[in-house]
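Problem: given the chain below (219 residues), write out its structure.
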Amino acid sequence: MIVAKNLVKHYDGGLVKALNGVSFEVEKGAVAALMGPSGCGKSTLLNLVGALDTPTSGEILIDGRDISSYEPLDRFRARTIGFVFQFHHLIPGLSLLENTELPMYPLGISKKEMKKRATEMLVKVGLVERMDFPPTKVSGGERQRAAIARALVNGPSIILADEPTGSVDTETGQAILDHLIHLCHSQGATMLIATHNQDIAARTDRVLHMKDGVLYDAI
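Solution.
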């Protein structure tokens, strides 16, 4: 379960107020959409939940424990959280297989086991025949599927997706969403997906609406 309590995030000495007292809960295994216009604070909120940034005030609990108490934090992120972004952020000089292996390095997994797990995940997203290709030699949809494989390779209990279909066409976006939701359910993961797309939101278990750094009308 994810619990956020009165999250505030300010930048530039308080001049930029990205979040202003955001509180919510997402049940274990649920898929929740975080909706709102660009600049409303969706990405900031995901970064806080994903321990990529720290709140100015407030707290985030993961399975009842304050996220700030986990040490070392990079190992916690690697084990617990999978990130999928609008742009895939794959490393061009590495193959899809090598990119998928990257989240396992902080966990001290053997190279043989890393390759095995990465290959299995690429099979699940339909990329086994592309796994030796670099990102520059595959399509945009395939790059995003590889990014999903990378995000889920450690079996995270939380998946954070920030506009994951925003950089591809509608048909490809639907396929990517299908993969995300299927893998999320098959692994029993909780997913928070930031989007402005009503069609995506309609496929989730609940919707959280944001505007100007405030969460409102959660349904």
